[in-house]
Design brief:
By secondary structure, the protein is α+β, with helices and mostly antiparallel strands. The strands form two sheets. Strands 1, 2, 3, 4, 5, 6, 7 and 8 form an eight-stranded antiparallel β-sheet that branches. A three-stranded antiparallel β-sheet has the order 9-10-11, sandwiched between helices. Residues 3-18 have low confidence and may be disordered. The protein has helices spanning 21-31, 69-76, 113-123, 160-163, 167-187, 189-198, 236-252, and strands at residues 35-41, 44-50, 53-54, 60-65, 79-85, 98-107, 136-149, 155-158, 207-212, 215-220, 223-228. It has two domains: 15-164, Electron Transport, Fmn-binding Protein, Chain A (Pnp Oxidase, Chain A); 165-252, PNP-oxidase-like (Split barrel-like), CATH 3.20.180.10. Helix 5 (167-187) crosses helix 6 and helix 6 (189-198) packs across helix 7 (236-252). The chain is built from seven helices and eleven strands. Strand 7 and strand 8 form a beta hairpin.
């Protein structure tokens, strides 16, 4: 899969932001490994820290214990809000990008549970020690409203049509995900290592653990690296184009974005 082809065109660093605030908001949410969750307790707000991961369709996955107040709150009333925050551009915290979402969270059940739980654990490998404890259950948050702030005085209200990726693209990449992971991990470990090293994450036994329309995750031990594509993809062939570009950039010392 990861070999140079004529379709691997160079991409400028500005291209990641070329789709505007909606794509920037998606990338921020995909990369987030900590978030603030606001739930309702007897009609009053209650705020807590959670550790999210995203499903292919951008819904947010959280592994919550029945011993926690926020899970008990959600079982009584699934309405909630979630906020993720990036790094500040200056010493002023208000220059940090952040995404605020309001919606509803419910426990994941049925045939998809195992796959989504594995995806969450891949983003939080340290949690494998307790993820199967009886009091933990996977919860999925689905956004209904979104506000993205790209820094100081840069606020955008996003519709779900703007924020969410195309359902057809999500389905196409999801159907190829297992094949992509198996091929990259079996045949292109050196290429994955090159991307990780170029990203500043250092050497290790890096393996691809998830891929979606916005990028992919690598993991080595308890380290997890999220790498964004330069554009939203819609097929396995477009995933290949982005991987070729990233490997070329890593090996030539140019920007990964």
């Amino acid at each position: 899969m990861i070999s140079r082809g004529e379709d691997a065109a160079p991409v400028t660093p500005s291209s990641v932001a070329s789709d505007g605030p909606a794509r920037a908001a998606r990338l921020l949410l995909r990369e987030a490994r900590v978030a603030s969750l606001a739930t309702l307790r007897d009609g009053a707000p209650f705020l807590s820290l959670v550790t999210p991961a995203t499903a292919p369709d951008l819904s947010v996955l959280m592994l919550l214990s029945s011993l926690s107040e926020h899970r008990r709150n959600l079982e009584a009333d699934g309405r909630c809000a979630l906020m993720v925050t990036g790094a500040a551009e200056t010493r002023n915290p208000q220059t940090a990008a952040r995404l605020s979402l309001s919606g509803r969270a419910d426990e994941v059940t049925g045939d998809e549970t195992a796959g989504l739980k594995a995806r969450w654990i891949a983003a939080h490998p340290y949690a494998a020690l307790y993820a199967d404890f009886a009091d933990f259950a996977l919860t999925r948050f689905v956004a209904e409203e979104a506000q993205y702030i790209g820094g100081f005085a840069r606020a955008y209200h996003l519709t779900l049509d703007e924020l969410l990726p195309s359902a057809d693209g999500v389905a196409a990449v999801a159907s190829a995900e297992a094949r992509i992971l198996a091929h990259c991990n079996a045949d292109h470990a050196e290429a994955l290592l090159a991307i990780a090293v170029a990203s500043g994450s250092g050497h290790g036994d890096w393996r691809m653990t998830a891929v979606d329309v916005d990028g992919f995750d690598l993991a080595a031990d308890d380290r997890v690296l999220r790498t964004a594509f330069s554009r939203t993809v819609a097929s396995a062939s477009e995933v290949r184009q982005e991987l070729v570009r990233l490997v070329d950039a890593a090996r030539t010392g140019t920007s990964l974005v």
